[in-house]
Amino acid sequence: MPTDPLNPGGLTLTPNESPTTLSLISALNMTPHIEGGYFVETDRSKDKIPNPYATVSTAARDPTRTFSTLIYYLLTPHTPIGRFHRNKSRTIHLLHKGRATYVIIHPDGSVETLVVGHSVENGEKLQWVVEGGDYKASFVHPEDGECLISEVVIPGFEYTDHNFMASREELVALVGEDIAKEWEWLLRKD
């Protein structure tokens, strides 16, 4: 049986999730995500486009890409962190419920933080975009409960386009020592 590339270790649900959270995870058919939290892919377009990431060496075996993909992504008090990672493709995020903080590191080293939530009048975001090549991480505060979003990836998500920030040294090289100290807790630990 093939290994799920987004759950290669066969991650299992966190047993401490509340009954309400477990009900939501079950209703949406979500599984643990290697970034943290839970996810389910709900759409993969049948339409294809020329692969914008193809190189001379990969064009023959990977000439087209799925036009778009769509997932639900959930952070909970027991899985509160989505670790720093990036994708090649642009990702459009849409909030369904809850509240979270997103940290986005652009290729020039600038850092953007934003709170996603329903208090738009206080500057919270209901939708936001992370460009391909930007690192992003997210977290919920325990008092905020869960955060459920959708992500639309264009061109569609492929696991080969995804990578975690490799190390604290990579973070320091990108943003400097002082800023790295503030956000290093969002790095993947293994």
Structure, described:
This protein is mainly beta and 190 residues long. It is 13% helix and 37% strand. The chain contains 3 helices and 13 strands, in the order αβββββββββββββαα. It has helices at 19-27, 168-175, 177-183, and strands at 31-32, 38-44, 48-50, 64-66, 69-75, 81-87, 90-98, 100-105, 111-116, 127-130, 135-139, 147-154, 162-164. The protein has a 6-stranded antiparallel sheet with strand order 1-2-5-12-7-10, with no helix packed on it. Strand 8 and strand 9 (111-116) form a beta hairpin. Helix 2 (168-175) crosses helix 3. The model is unreliable at 1-11 (pLDDT under 50).
Low-confidence stretches: 1-11
Summed up, the helix count is 3
**Count of beta strands:** 13
What is the mean predicted local confidence, pLDDT?
90
Strand content: 35-45%
The helix/strand class is mainly beta
Classify the helix fraction into a percent range.
10-25%
Give the distance, in angstroms, between the N- and C-terminal Cα atoms. 25 Å
Quaternary structure: single chain
Based on the model shown, name its key terms.
single chain; globular; 6-stranded antiparallel sheet; 190 residues; 5-stranded antiparallel sheet; disordered N terminus; mainly beta; 13 strands
